[in-house]
Design goal:
This protein is mainly α. The chain has helices at 12-21, 26-49, 57-74, 84-99. Helix 1 packs across helix 4 (84-99) and helix 2 (26-49) packs antiparallel against helix 3 (57-74).
C-alpha cells in the first residue's frame, strides 16, 4: 500500500516523488520513455508534413506505451486518471531525468 494519498498533492514538487514511486518497474519506465519519444516523433512529423490529422496519434502513442507499462508490468492504475496535468508533466520530467542519467533506465 502506498504511504502517500493522491489527494495530498498541492504542487508538482510534492507529486513527482509519488509519480516516481508509481514507476518503479524498469520496463514501465522504459515504455514511458519510448511513448514520450514517439510523441515527439509524431509532433516532428506533423510539423514537417503539415498534416494535422497526425495529432490524433498523440494520445495513442503517448498513453499506449505508458498504459501497457502500468497494466502489465507495474500492475497499478496510471496517475493520469486522478492527476492528468501533474502526470503529463511527470512524463516529461521523467523522460528528461532518464535522458540525463539522473534516473536509471
Amino acid at each position: 500500500m502506498n504511504s502517500v494519498k493522491q489527494s495530498d498533492f498541492e504542487s508538482f514538487g510534492e507529486f513527482y516523488p509519488y509519480y516516481l514511486q508509481e514507476h518503479s518497474d524498469p520496463t514501465c519506465r522504459r515504455l514511458h520513455f519510448f511513448g514520450t519519444l514517439g510523441l515527439f516523433a509524431v509532433l516532428v512529423g506533423v510539423f514537417l508534413t503539415g498534416n494535422l490529422w497526425g495529432l490524433l496519434l498523440l494520445p495513442v502513442v503517448g498513453y499506449g506505451f505508458a498504459w501497457v507499462g502500468h497494466f502489465f508490468f507495474e500492475k497499478n492504475r496510471p496517475a493520469t486518471f486522478k492527476h492528468p496535468w501533474y502526470s503529463l508533466a511527470g512524463d516529461f520530467v521523467m523522460f528528461k531525468d532518464m535522458l540525463t542519467g539522473r534516473l536509471r533506465w
